[in-house]
């Protein structure tokens, strides 16, 4: 594996090409150490996501090249040709904020993180059937991940609804992962089991519709 993915001439050439752009040395390191150095490379949030993805892309392309040479499949030139003529299909949709029915409130939650993990905050707003704000809250929570911030936003919102006796709630989140966890469709990270269980117990005492939405609540339009 070390030879195929790191010390072979084509692997060395590929790693050096990208590592030189990122300021990473590949000399005298094992494959695991090299990948970790990419993951730990400092940078702002978007840069770090790219740095974390590049090793996986390189390894995947080296593996495909190995299989292509062994089994006579497509080679690098075919891949480059395919990429050069590829045009992604773009989709768009208009996102509206819709008023809840009479007797219901709508709760929009959000979480944000600078660094993932990094300085994080959550926010939520609650509106009535006329679209008027009943309450809104935002707080920083220190170092956390994006998911931890999203979960905290829902937890605080449900606690507020519990305190103020709101029983019919439409909960909207832009985290599809969080929606699936709350609906017991996806497994919950062990570090967040307690918070998720608190939310589920709170929801079980109310009529709650959990929805995934596109876009942020602060930029939504109302109809």
From TrEMBL:
Domain of life: Eukaryota
UniProt xrefs under PANTHER family: OS05G0353850 PROTEIN, RNASE H TYPE-1 DOMAIN-CONTAINING PROTEIN
CDD domains: RNase_H_like (cd06222)
Domain RNase H type-1: 101-223
Gene3D superfamilies: Ribonuclease H-like superfamily/Ribonuclease H
Native source organism of the sequence: Solanum bulbocastanum (Wild potato)
Pfam families per the UniProt record, alphabetical: RVT_3 (PF13456)
SUPFAM superfamilies listed in its UniProt record: Ribonuclease H-like
Protein name (database record): RNase H type-1 domain-containing protein
GO terms assigned for molecular function: nucleic acid binding; RNA-DNA hybrid ribonuclease activity
């Amino acid at each position: 594996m070390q030879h195929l993915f790191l010390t072979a001439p084509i692997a060395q050439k590929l790693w050096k090409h990208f590592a030189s752009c990122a300021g990473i040395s590949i000399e005298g390191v094992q494959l695991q150490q090299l990948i970790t150095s990419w993951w730990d490379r400092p940078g702002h949030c978007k840069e770090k996501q790219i740095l974390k993805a590049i090793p996986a892309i390189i390894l995947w392309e080296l593996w495909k090249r190995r299989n292509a040479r062994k089994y006579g499949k497509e080679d690098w030139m075919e891949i480059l040709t395919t990429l050069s003529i590829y045009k992604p299909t773009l989709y768009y949709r208009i996102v509206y904020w819709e008023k809840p029915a009479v007797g219901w409130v709508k709760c929009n939650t959000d979480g944000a993180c600078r660094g993932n993990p990094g300085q994080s905050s959550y926010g939520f707003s609650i509106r009535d059937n006329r679209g008027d704000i009943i309450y809104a809250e935002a707080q920083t929570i220190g170092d956390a991940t994006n998911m931890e911030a999203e979960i905290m936003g829902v937890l605080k919102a449900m606690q507020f609804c519990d305190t103020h006796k709101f029983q019919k709630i439409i909960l909207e989140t832009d985290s599809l992962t969080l929606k699936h966890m709350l609906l017991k469709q996806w497994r919950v990270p062990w570090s967040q089991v307690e918070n998720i269980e608190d939310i589920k117990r709170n929801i079980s005492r109310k009529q709650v519709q959990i929805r995934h939405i596109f876009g942020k609540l602060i930029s939504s339009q109302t109809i």
